[in-house]
Specification:
GO molecular function, one term: metal ion binding
Structural class: alpha/beta
CATH superfamily of the largest domain: Glycoside hydrolase/deacetylase
CATH class of the largest domain: Alpha Beta
Signal peptide: 1-25
Radius of gyration: 22 Å
CATH architecture of the largest domain: Alpha-Beta Barrel
Strand content: 5-15%
Keywords: Hydrolase, Metal-binding, Signal
Largest sheet: 6 strands, parallel
Domain NodB homology: 151-325
Protein name: Polysaccharide deacetylase family protein
Helix content: 25-40%
CATH topology of the largest domain: TIM Barrel
Distance between the termini: 39 Å
Length: 350
């Protein structure tokens, strides 16, 4: 039983021996307010709200909503059409909502009637470290700020997958032990699903870069949602997973678009301009001259000149003392829904 819970009064003496309501009455144990680690248990109990467990953060609640969708997809064999409709799954938007249960391993969301016929979605607490406050988590899932190198950068690549260049790039990244995030276009994923699988096999991450690379701010909400949901479905069909991150094409995003998706919006602080130069030497020079500590570097894995530039960029930045890290390592904590991230300590709302 989670150490911060106090038990409901009806348990009586049984509570002293650690029995849960579920064990006695064959009912789920609903989250109840409890003292922090440093305080003593009192007899006062109440049902927790999302506001309680997230420190009243709508961004953390949005992250929980998206984790509910992805967990449902990953624990049920959904069709592409069903994945596309996940955005319409009825989920709580108010911090005062209480439709969840906490135990030692899961946050279980109790759903209202939905088209999937699913009543409960159990999100592993391992995915909620840094999202749910430590006082409501078992000690093994407490968030502790990670120790990272003093000088860090993150590599990202847009517009793939490419059947030839992406595998070549993956081998380079593996050779230098460098992680990267690939923001993929759905219309290419359906052509080369094996390449998307290869990205994950090599230990890298996949983000959503829309279906056909439009400027999302020019679209209606329905069309903008469809651009992302179609790509979610394509990546899910290829890999069995749904991307955690979104990068809008051209970086075009506003509050209307940014708040549609319940996901972190990943921008960049270094535009390699590889798409403009189409020249390896110029791309290398530009990246090296503009990269600073905490940069997110934007490149593309659909240009041969870009892929050819990567080895020199890696070698040169490593000589300068940089360590290549994932986006979460760069941020030193989970990236939250409906925020846009430009680099380390550089994130903002809309």
């Amino acid at each position: 039983m989670i150490r911060k819970y106090s038990l409901v009064r009806r348990l009586g003496v049984a509570a002293l021996f650690g029995f849960t309501l579920a064990a006695i009455a064959n009912q789920p144990v609903f989250a109840a307010s409890t003292p922090t680690k440093a305080t003593k248990t009192t007899s006062t109990t109440k049902r927790l709200t999302y506001g309680d467990i997230t420190n009243n953060s709508t961004k953390r609640l949005g992250t929980i909503r998206q984790l509910t969708r992805t967990t449902l997809a990953e624990t049920h064999k959904l069709t592409g059409k069903q994945v596309q409709q996940l955005v319409y799954l009825p989920l709580p938007k108010r911090l005062t909502a209480k439709n969840f249960t906490l135990d030692n391993e899961h946050l279980t969301i109790h759903l209202t009637k939905n088209n999937y016929g699913v009543k409960n979605v159990a999100i592993p607490l391992s995915k909620l470290t840094g999202i749910i406050l430590n006082r409501y988590m078992p000690a093994k899932y407490d968030f502790v700020k990670p120790k990272t190198a003093k000088k860090v950068v993150a590599l990202t690549f847009d517009d793939g997958p490419d059947p030839t260049l992406t595998p070549r790039l993956l081998k380079t990244l593996k050779k230098y032990k460098v992680p990267a995030t690939f923001f993929e276009v759905g219309s290419s994923v359906i052509k080369y699903p094996n390449i998307s699988r290869l990205v994950l096999k090599y230990g890298d991450q996949i983000g959503n870069h829309s279906w056909s690379h439009p400027q999302l701010t020019d679209l209606t909400n329905a069309k903008a949602l469809r651009q992302i949901s179609l790509t979610d479905a394509a990546i899910y069909k290829a890999t069995g997973t749904i991307p955690y991150y979104i990068r809008p094409p051209y970086g075009a995003v506003n509050s209307r678009i940014g708040n549609l998706y319940d996901r972190p919006i990943v921008r960049w602080s270094v535009d390699s301009r590889d798409w403009s130069y189409l020249n390896t030497a110029k791309t290398v020079d530009h990246v090296l001259s503009t990269t600073t500590n905490g940069s997110i570097i934007l490149m593309h894995d659909i240009h041969a000149t870009s892929v050819a530039a990567v080895p020199q960029i890696i070698r040169s930045l490593k000589k300068r003392g940089y360590t290549f890290v994932t986006l979460e390592q760069l941020n030193e904590k989970p990236l939250l829904a409906n925020l846009q991230y430009f680099g380390r300590n550089d994130f903002r709302g809309f």
